[in-house]
Amino acid sequence: MKKPSTPEAAPKELIIFMDCGDTIIDEGTEIRDEEGTVISGNVIPGADVAVRTLAERGYRLAIVADGTAQSFKNLLTSNGLYDCFETLIYSEPIKAVKPSPRMFKAAIGAMDLSEEDCSRIIMVGNNLSRDVKGANQMGITSVFLSWTPRYPKEPADELEVPQYTIASPLELIDLVESLNERIAVAG
Fold first, then answer.
1. How large is the C-alpha radius of gyration of the chain?
2. How confident is the model over 73-89, as pLDDT tens digits?
3. pTM value?
């Protein structure tokens, strides 16, 4: 990722983990090859703007997603977002899927963080049973993007209750800025 040089882009305290399908990419637009690898898909309206804006403002971003590395590389590269992420953690090489702590711990390790940093990490995702539950059980702030009709919107248990809910990717920008400010003041 290119390191921004403007004062607005000074490194931020808040770290952002994001799912990809129905969080950045509209799963309903995905096209797969005969092996099941996603070869293309369109961004959810505003998701590309949100990701680029947060990266430009100095936030450290990571993908934490279930699926194959090649699918996500294809999707993020074709939509011009691949270089916005510091690291990309996929279930394929980790041999686990969310809500497994292994997925989140892999991202924490790849970003040279420790589990003590969980209080300044948010996980943004569309799936209560995977993204929200996984984040909550790690002590990571959970942000539920309720955009998609493909997944349940009602928590099945306490671990699936998100700390924040947004309806569109663009709402993430203000939420992130607010959460970062709270961390900076508390720190």
1. 15
2. 999 999 999 999 999 99
3. 0.93
